[in-house]
Amino acid sequence: MSNTTKTSTSASSPRRPQAMAEPGAFRARLLAFAIRYGFLLLLVGLVLYFSLAAPGFANPRSAVFVLQSVAITGILALGVTTTLVVGGFDLSIGAVATSSLMLAAYSMVVLEQPAYVAVALCLLMGALVGLINGLLIVKCRIPDLLATLGMMFLLIGLQRIPTQGNSIATGMTLADGETAQGSFSAAFLWLGRHRFDLVIERLVPVPVVIFLLIALAIWLFLGFTRHGRLMYAIGSNARATALVGAPVARYKIAAYMISGVTAAIGGVLLAARLGRGDIASGNNLLLDSVAAALIGFAVLGAARPNAFGTAMGALFVGILLQGMTMLNAPYYTQDFVKGAVLVIALMFTFYLSSRRGPSMRH
């Protein structure tokens, strides 16, 4: 009898920890699911809510407006993403975009240059600003926030000097009393106003196509090339990456140059959409782009900067702002809501991720 009792006891004893572990394993799986897919479910829920609460939100006109706003914000956010990958941050993107907008307008309206010259000047300006930012950070060892903040203020002041703080439009009166003879060419305006006939007639604007192409290029570059993997390694541990022979300084400078060029592209597209050099049109570009890039950390539980997450973050910001506008929400509440969403997304990304077991982090 004693042997039988011992045998039955020993046979049943391993089952108790397994039964006790099942609730913990279920909670872990639920937590992992929430971290990985919670943001996407939130995005779907937001679309459904605004579709029901705001008449006209789901119609093609509203979709086009969201896509247009997402395109420019997303392009700038992708530039921020590249600097985040190498462990940096670029606060000058909004100022680069507005400087590009003003430079394009000044080139065509005041200097009477063709569209391709204006676009080339803007891209060169963005690359130059990114190069200077990179050199200040890498060679002069100025913290990235301070260097790009100083560049932001420099550009904000510089873009106002040629027109004495005025916006640029066809037929404007110049400082010497003469009238500007140039104008925005049809080819330039095509970049911001043309829509491709895809599936639904005239639904996809050119800026959206450019945004998708840039997002695809950066996603492929960061995720599937040796250079992209090295940039992630630099952001994770720059010293260790340098010890294996990687040119850390060059990659960091290249990241800021990419950020400058993408910001310049965003400014060109904004100028082409507006048809004038509006000096106040890019006021919210910095905050919206940074929010999109940081929200991207929460997409699919990536917990790191990535192009796909940034694109989804830009879409989320665009849908949120469009929905709030159509619900007649006061403009001064939009930044609060964006901030709350950003905090929640980062909480899901970092706080909940830290509670996962080591075996579930891959």
UniProtKB/TrEMBL annotation:
InterPro entries xref list: ABC_transp_permease
Chief localization: membrane
CDD domains: TM_PBP1_transp_AraH_like (cd06579)
This protein's UniProt keywords: Cell inner membrane, Cell membrane, Membrane, Transmembrane, Transmembrane helix, Transport
Regions crossing the membrane: 30-52, 64-86, 91-109, 115-138, 145-162, 203-222, 253-272, 284-303, 309-329, 336-353
Region: Disordered, residue numbers: 1-20
Topology in the lipid bilayer: Multi-pass membrane protein
Subcellular localization(s) per the UniProt record: Cell inner membrane
Biased composition (Low complexity): 1-13
Superkingdom of source: Bacteria
Family label: Belongs to the binding-protein-dependent transport system permease family. AraH/RbsC subfamily.
Protein name: ABC transporter permease
Provenance organism: Halomonas dongshanensis
